[in-house]
Amino acid sequence: MAVHAHPDDESSKGAATTARYAAEGVEVLVVTCTGGERGDILNPSYVVPDGHEFDSLDGRHAVRREEMARSAAALGVRHRWLGFVDSGLPEGDPLPPLPEGCFALVPLEEASEPLVRLVREFRPHVMTTYDPSGGYPHPDHIKCHEVSAEAFAAAGDAARYPDAGEPWEPMKLYYNHGFSMESLRAVHEAMEGAGLESPFGDWIESRAAREIPEREVTTYVPVSGYFSHRDDALRAHASQIDPDGFFFAVPRDIEADVWPWDEYELAVSNIPLPERAPGEHEDDLFAGVREALDAERAAGDEGREHAQVNA
Ligand SMILES: [Zn+2]
């Protein structure tokens, strides 16, 4: 279960991972907390399709619902909305107040309840979300972290959210990373080495100057075989993603060569993990999960045999 704040986030964060696992037979559900109603048109070549308008929250949501359906189809994943309203990215000094009723202002338990219900219905073994900073400071991204962490912790506890279904405890929680300094530098150098203009030069300098502490990457999932799925998903969000812009600035053969991974931070594990040498990373979000399920099944079989003997 990959939990995201807005329609399009699933195409820019961990997209190739979801496409890869779906192609390998894992049931993958993308969950989008908000309808993306306060996103502006970010693609200069975008033309609002006939029969749609982008001037109202409802109009934008209708456009973005269709884009999201195309993205989910490109990734080969299932998709559900949580139904909250986009908070928008507040800008200005001082920052304006958040709009009434938006996702970021919904109290934590009320905002988490639909996700707890969905976790108990879909019963994921692994969940992904953003780190506590949101990955970038959009109030909906921070809230997405908060409701995901809450649902991960509470869904298995029958005493919490008692009206939201049968308890289910997921095994692992990950934070999406990507665009780590290490990855930016690797791609930047490869682009310059190939005589191409790198899109990352200014970004690397400004991030280095601000000395933002890098979060730990524990897990590198090889996904270069699924870049084309990710790119189709990005293009599906035609109002948001410029097909000639930033996300498409790096030739995919260079990317596959120097950075063929999606990066994650393992935040919580409720299962024992395979031993790793120092400096060795995970390459699979399901590392340890199949073993844990086998152990559960073996324990279950023993339990049943025991019951039969007793009978
Ligand atoms: Zn977003």
From TrEMBL:
<comment type="function">
    <text>A mycothiol (MSH, N-acetylcysteinyl-glucosaminyl-inositol) S-conjugate amidase, it recycles conjugated MSH to the N-acetyl cysteine conjugate (AcCys S-conjugate, a mercapturic acid) and the MSH precursor. Involved in MSH-dependent detoxification of a number of alkylating agents and antibiotics.</text>
</comment>
<comment type="similarity">
    <text>Belongs to the MshB deacetylase family. Mca subfamily.</text>
</comment>
<dbReference type="Pfam" id="PF02585">
    <property type="entry name" value="PIG-L"/>
</dbReference>
<protein>
    <recommendedName>
        <fullName>Mycothiol S-conjugate amidase</fullName>
        <ecNumber>3.5.1.115</ecNumber>
    </recommendedName>
</protein>
<comment type="subunit">
    <text>Monomer.</text>
</comment>
<dbReference type="InterPro" id="IPR024078">
    <property type="entry name" value="LmbE-like_dom_sf"/>
</dbReference>
<keyword id="KW-0378">Hydrolase</keyword>
<feature type="binding site">
    <location>
        <position position="9"/>
    </location>
    <ligand>
        <name>Zn(2+)</name>
    </ligand>
</feature>
<feature type="binding site">
    <location>
        <position position="6"/>
    </location>
    <ligand>
        <name>Zn(2+)</name>
    </ligand>
</feature>
<keyword id="KW-0862">Zinc</keyword>
<dbReference type="InterPro" id="IPR003737">
    <property type="entry name" value="GlcNAc_PI_deacetylase-related"/>
</dbReference>
<dbReference type="InterPro" id="IPR017811">
    <property type="entry name" value="Mca"/>
</dbReference>
<feature type="binding site">
    <location>
        <position position="141"/>
    </location>
    <ligand>
        <name>Zn(2+)</name>
    </ligand>
</feature>
<keyword id="KW-0479">Metal-binding</keyword>
